[in-house]
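On clarity, I found the account of how folds are encoded harder to follow than it need be. Since the whole study asks how a given chain folds, the encoding of that fold should be made plain. For the editor and my fellow referees, an illustration may be useful. An entry of this sort, consisting of the sequence and the corresponding backbone structure tokens, reads as follows:

:::
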Amino acid sequence: MNRFIFVIFTIFLFFFMLSTPDLVFKGAQDGLMLWFYTVLPTLLPFLVIINVMLKTNIVCHISRFLHPFFGPLLHVSQNGCFAVLAGFLCGYPMGAKVTADLVKQKRISLSEGSYLLSFCNNTSPGFMVSFVICHTIGKPSLVVPSMLIFLCVPLLLSFLFRHIYSIKKENRFMVSSGFPSDTNQFSLTVIDDSIMDGFETITKVGGYIILFSVLLTLADALPVSSHWWTQGILPFLEITNGVTMIGHGNLSFPVKYAFIMGLCAFGGFCSAAQTQCMLSGSGLKTLPYIMEKLAAALATSFLSYGYIITMFP
């Protein structure tokens, strides 16, 4: 049944695209510009340097420094601490890529990888502060409370998710040993491999951004006038365009703020597709990840709405 629906949808989409080439061009152009001018220069340098760290023992030294704090708090192994750092600071889909790479290199277990993926693949703080809060919402005074809500929700949910994945307290003492010293020495080959891996990853990310930008443009052209469609459903396809759509809508400010914060906590289905691409070959599952991100989005929306109506009645 699911395969039949997918075939029908694909055929419909194909003929819809043939009948509206101008919309397809606009959507692809918007997605390409977003990727080339924003995502590429923002994400590619981090991809390359993190790849270098993963291919050498640098990540081991960073993880050893972070482990005394993250280990007891989050019940993660020494190597898992690096995924937490990347996931909270670098933005989608870096948390997923680092986690998947650590699992594939056997530096962390599959269960720990699933646990890490449940809370440490998030929107970057820079994007949240500059584009979302200051530019779109237009209230710099909300930077501190917004970031506290945004960062604390996944950390609090990790206390629940660790029980789902049976992450024991003893895990904080575990130090994975997936660094063969004879094959992880720094060299120009490591840099070359890291650059090529970074370009492969950023190209895949760009492909998904363009695809979902086209889907968003086509869906927005459908004869549906409901505010829930244009400001509640469509924005969840892609986070950057979605935040703009909600921000320019006519919802009340508390609802608009809660929706935007929830969308950023979820990341949009485009980010979910990018994440699924990063998980290929690692054994990590996408569906549990999506459910966990939806839980984070719901909690973030409720807390954000409650904060606004309490502080600004």
